[in-house]
Specification:
By secondary structure, the protein is of the alpha/beta class. The protein has 13 helices and 12 strands. Strands 1-4-5-8-9-10-11-12 form an 8-stranded parallel beta barrel, surrounded by 9 helices. Strands 6-7 form a two-stranded antiparallel ribbon. The termini are far apart. The protein binds ligand PBG. Ligand PBG is lined by residues 127, 129, 131, 139, 175-176, 211, 214-215, 285-286. This is Delta-aminolevulinic acid dehydratase.
Length: 337
């Protein structure tokens, strides 16, 4: 039998050389993950001693402020730099205009103050959006036709951001997608001497079905019903528009920008990083978490391997960090080698 490998020069390169041994794989590795890359999103609700499971996100809970302190302590131990707070608001407090969002004594400002009192070195991020606070589940104030009004919403969001800054939050993260909100919030922060409050803008936030489990977790799904967020969140078909959104947010004063959701939008993440070179974040959202957990819980995927591979993908795509419900899990895996 004559060989199929006719040419003496075959193969003309051997990329497998570098892959042969662990030492050389480590030596040529281009990207890496560390606990510093993670922001841990958590759900907060009123009460004492509460840790309540979220059915559509196995392994994720809603915490009362006191139990959240234990989570904060774990972030500190594992070196996760930032905790991101999302409120579950009691339905009696929900109104059409979502005014509870701007209550300086509301759940989120109280939780921020408690966290900063116990763990001053842990970064705390708060979401700026009205959907957990509105009786209709939209991120803003609506007219008679249910259309979300831009300017009145920006007013309320700015009051919300100021209440959070007053409570001592480190990063405010507007996730509402109203026009001009970054500039308005930045000016209000500066005017009130909150010159160090960072703004992480949800700049390219798509109208995604991957947010489903989050809406269960904060209890906005039922209020929202069959309505959607297509008049303010971005069309998943669009790519160039994401760059215009990010450009506007940077011009208006964002310190960091975000692309959301994560895994189906890695092309956008790479575009944004290449175009602006800003601190750029990705949000591996609730639906992505639920998919991975469901497959792993069925024994179809190896949870630990998938978690690390999916998070590394964000780094490779240009992300400086990732908001992920796997933050503590991944940090533990990295710590234990
Ligand atoms: C609020 C907000 C949402 C998410 C983060 N902030 C939901 C939405 O826009 O409907 C989604 C996060 C996730 O799915 O994990 N505006």
């Amino acid at each position: 039998m004559t060989s199929f490998l006719l040419s003496p020069e075959f193969p003309d390169s051997r990329p497998r050389r570098n892959r042969r041994d662990d030492f050389s794989r480590r030596l040529v590795r281009e990207n890496s993950l560390s606990a510093n890359d993670f922001i841990y999103p958590v759900f907060v609700r009123e009460g004492k001693g509460v840790e309540q499971a979220v059915p559509s996100m196995p392994g994720v809970s809603r915490y009362s402020p006191d139990t959240l302190l234990r989570v904060a302590e774990e972030c500190m131990e594992l070196g996760v730099p930032v905790l991101a707070l999302f409120p579950v608001i009691e339905s009696e407090l929900k109104t059409p205009d979502g005014a509870e969002a701007a209550n300086p004594d509301g759940l989120i400002p109280r939780t921020v103050a408690l966290l900063k009192q116990h763990f001053p070195e842990l970064g705390v991020l708060t979401d700026v959006a009205l959907d957990p606070y509105t009786s209709h589940g939209q991120d803003g104030i609506i007219d008679d036709n249910g259309y979300v009004l831009n300017e009145p919403t920006v007013e309320m969001l700015t009051r919300q951001a100021l209440a959070q800054a007053q409570a001592g939050v480190d990063i405010v993260a507007p996730s509402d997608m109203m026009d001009g909100r970054i500039g308005t919030i930045r000016k209000a922060l500066e005017a009130n001497q909150f010159i160090y409050t960072r703004i992480m803008a949800y700049s390219a936030k798509y109208a995604s079905a991957f947010y489903g489990p989050f809406r269960d977790a904060v209890g906005s799904a039922a209020n929202l019903g069959k309505s959607n967020k297509f008049t303010y969140q971005m069309d998943p078909a669009n790519r160039n528009e994401a760059l215009r959104e990010v450009a506007a947010d940077i011009r208006e004063g964002a310190d960091m920008v975000m692309v959301k959701p994560g895994m189906p939008y890695l092309d956008i993440l790479r575009d944004v990083k290449n175009a602006f070179g800003m601190p750029t974040f990705a949000y591996q959202v609730s639906g992505e978490y639920a998919m991975i957990r469901a497959a792993a819980d069925n024994g179809w995927l190896d949870l630990d391997a998938i978690v690390l591979e999916s998070l590394l993908g964000f780094k490779r795509a240009g992300g400086d960090g990732i908001l992920t419900y796997f933050a503590l899990h991944a940090a533990r895996l990295l710590k234990n080698g």
